[in-house]
């Protein structure tokens, strides 16, 4: 007997180790997808569902149903699978069956899950994507995003400031279109999609984020274009400090107050936007390639060099301020010359001296000329003849077509004047003259300019000399324009996307500096080039807008975009979002330091894809960070009607939880709740063990 009990205990312990379970009827919870895309299919099979289950309906919320045929239309317009799982888990089910179209983002199930696929409802959803940062006057695009889980015919109507769109189209998956218009005030855009399945609509409001301020100097045509784009335009005067977001210059250096080039350079370096246009007084005609040689993105192309010899009075009467300012003016001549130009200086007093013969004004040539000019001293009489003859002789061997002489004096010429006048007339050179002060021999100098075919200048004080020298330099070292029909080609750049400029009737032949980027070109010549200098942006346009683009309907939009780009370094960003794949492509145009996109707690750097252009593929809304700037970005992401392979989603979800994808006929299978037998086996083994000990104790007692 005792041996049998011991064997029984061992057998029971062994069985407990195997942990056997006894099948018993279980609790089945059915999760019914009542979201808009699935509920009609789920309603259609309600009569085929078992009556002995527990039913939970879900969309954005989850609620328990009294029966499978009960209907709820108040659970929201999207699918929240997490809410459904939480409701089911609270019911402690032995089996969970999900009945859905699978149009959702799957999440792991906390229990074994079976799934039944139902087809989604034919439908087209529409959503409008506004530009995240629209500027006043900007041509903006509102994205029209259509989504259909099944291929379906639809009629689309979009209403807004640009009129009404009406289109018939087939939608399968995701389709994106853009509705564009000029934003000059608060705007409403409404989209309606209709078809055999019904109707859906969306509406969005746009409020201009900013309005740029432009100071336009000497270019009325540009001013009108910018006004049409919503800019606050002021057409002069030039005054300091420069408070505009953009300064457009169509005047020459000498048309602006003294110190203007330095002020514009400082404005640019501190983040301002500069635009130079080729009016008859602007760009190369205005001397800006000489006044701002390091900051102008265009330089003249194929310019024929010129030669000029300055014949400068250094007699005793010039000593002091006169000589200092005359030297400052000569330095302006040096700075205004291009590499292909020649400049020489002959000094005269009682005798003449060649300070330096005509030499190309290369960078090295300019440095040497400046050094020699700063060494000039005054003293002696006023004898011009020999100095003038020497200047004529020096110019004979210079290999350029245009040659000139500029004579500066502040006193009476002491040698015979007729031979000088005769030589000026016979030399074939362009002779100009400059009289300084009341004691200058004005009659002779004026006659010298007339006989020599040049220009006569009169400076009441020495302070006028630098600007007069600069004016003469512009006359001699000038560029040329071309007239005809010049086709325009766009280069890859965000500003040129979607634009096809017509041919130009007038063009200044130009080349771009190495640091600049060409946006428009014509047969190898740069038409529009831009770049960054310091914290700001600068551009140069080598055509006259009063004659070019007058019939081009997109001229205002293109120039408005250029203006906003230039002021971007100082004022604002241009920011766009395009639905693409499962997310959105975000494009930022602007001067950014270290742009980051913050989304769902993660910081992702934007990728530079071109000068002033950054991009990122975003999967969820977030915030654009750049220094102190924080721009929220909200855009449509895959939602209730996003096309997916719902059947595959359900199969993957079920198999990941050790369940399976069921057919409709499998729904009636009863659930089971296995009963663990280990506790009962261990209890019985313990009882037998105690019985064995009791019997063994009695046996010992009898023997005793």
From TrEMBL:
Signal peptide (UniProt feature, chain positions): none
SMART domains: VWA (SM00327)
Domain (VWFA) ranges: 307-473
CDD domains the UniProt entry points to: vWFA
Gene3D superfamilies with a match to the protein in the record: von Willebrand factor, type A domain (3.40.50.410)
InterPro entries per the UniProt record, alphabetical: Class_I_gatase-like, CLCR, VWF_A, vWFA_dom_sf
Database matches in Pfam families: VWA_2
Designated name of the protein: VWA domain-containing protein
């Amino acid at each position: 007997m005792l041996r049998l009990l011991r064997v029984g205990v061992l057998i029971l312990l062994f069985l407990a180790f195997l942990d056997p379970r006894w099948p018993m009827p279980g609790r089945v919870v059915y999760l019914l997808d009542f979201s808009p895309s699935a509920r009609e299919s789920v309603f259609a099979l309600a009569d085929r569902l078992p009556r002995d289950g527990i039913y939970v309906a879900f969309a954005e919320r989850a609620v328990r149903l009294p029966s499978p045929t009960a209907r709820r239309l108040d659970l929201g317009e999207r699918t929240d699978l997490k809410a459904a799982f939480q409701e089911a888990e609270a019911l402690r089910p032995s089996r969970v069956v999900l009945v859905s179209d699978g149009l959702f983002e799957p999440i792991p199930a906390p229990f074994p899950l079976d799934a039944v696929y139902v087809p989604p409802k034919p439908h087209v959803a529409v959503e409008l994507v506004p530009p995240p940062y629209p500027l006043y006057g900007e041509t903006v695009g509102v994205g029209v995003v259509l989504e259909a889980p099944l291929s379906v015919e639809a009629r689309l109507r979009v209403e807004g400031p640009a009129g009404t769109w009406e289109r018939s189209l087939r939608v399968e998956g995701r389709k994106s279109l853009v509705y564009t218009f000029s934003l000059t005030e608060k705007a409403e855009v409404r989209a309606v999609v209709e078809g055999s399945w019904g109707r859906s609509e969306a509406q969005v409001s746009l409020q201009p984020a900013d309005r740029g301020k432009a100071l336009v100097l000497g270019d009325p045509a540009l001013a009108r274009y910018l006004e049409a784009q919503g800019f606050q335009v002021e057409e002069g005067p030039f005054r300091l400090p420069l408070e505009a977001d953009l300064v457009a210059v169509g005047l020459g250096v000498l048309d602006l107050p003294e110190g203007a080039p330095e002020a514009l350079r400082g404005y640019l370096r501190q983040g301002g936007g500069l635009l130079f246009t080729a009016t008859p007084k602007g760009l190369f005609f205005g001397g800006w390639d000489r006044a701002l040689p390091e900051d102008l993105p265009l330089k003249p192309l194929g310019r024929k060099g010129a030669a000029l010899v300055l014949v400068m009075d250094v007699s005793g009467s010039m000593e002091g301020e006169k000589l200092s300012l005359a030297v400052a003016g000569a330095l302006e001549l040096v700075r205004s010359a291009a590499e292909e130009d020649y400049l020489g200086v002959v000094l005269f007093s009682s005798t003449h001296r060649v300070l330096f013969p005509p030499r190309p004004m290369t960078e090295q040539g300019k440095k040497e000329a400046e050094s020699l000019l700063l060494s000039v001293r005054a003293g002696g009489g006023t004898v011009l003849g020999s100095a003038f003859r020497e200047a004529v002789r020096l110019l004979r061997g210079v290999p350029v077509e245009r040659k000139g002489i500029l004579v500066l004096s502040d006193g009476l010429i002491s040698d015979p004047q007729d031979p000088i006048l005769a030589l000026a007339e016979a030399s074939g050179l362009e002779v100009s003259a400059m009289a300084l002060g009341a004691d200058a021999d004005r009659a002779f100098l004026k006659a010298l300019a007339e006989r020599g075919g040049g220009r006569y200048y009169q400076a009441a004080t020495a302070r006028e000399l630098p600007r007069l020298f600069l004016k003469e330099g512009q006359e001699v070292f000038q560029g040329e324009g071309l007239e005809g029909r010049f086709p325009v080609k766009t280069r890859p750049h965000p500003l040129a996307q979607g634009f096809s400029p017509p041919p130009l009737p007038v063009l200044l032949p130009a080349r771009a500096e190495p640091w600049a980027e060409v946006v428009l070109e014509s047969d190898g010549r740069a038409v529009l080039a831009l770049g960054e200098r310091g914290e700001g942006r600068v551009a140069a346009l080598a055509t006259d807008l009063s004659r070019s683009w007058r019939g081009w309907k997109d001229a205002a939009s293109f120039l408005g975009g250029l203006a906003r780009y230039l002021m971007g370094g100082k004022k604002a960003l241009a920011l766009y979002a395009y639905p693409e794949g499962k997310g959105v492509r975000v494009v930022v145009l602007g001067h950014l330091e270290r742009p980051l996109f913050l989304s769902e707690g993660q910081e992702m750097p934007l990728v530079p894809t071109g000068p002033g252009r950054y991009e990122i593929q975003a999967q969820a809304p977030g915030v654009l960070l750049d220094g102190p700037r924080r721009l929220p970005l909200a855009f449509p992401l895959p939602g209730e009607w996003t096309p997916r392979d719902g059947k595959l989603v359900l199969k993957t979800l079920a198999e990941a939880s050790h369940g399976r994808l069921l057919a409709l006929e499998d729904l009636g299978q009863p659930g089971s709740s296995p009963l663990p037998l280990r506790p009962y086996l261990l209890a019985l083994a313990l009882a037998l063990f105690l019985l064995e000990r009791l019997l063994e104790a009695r046996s010992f007692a009898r023997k005793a």
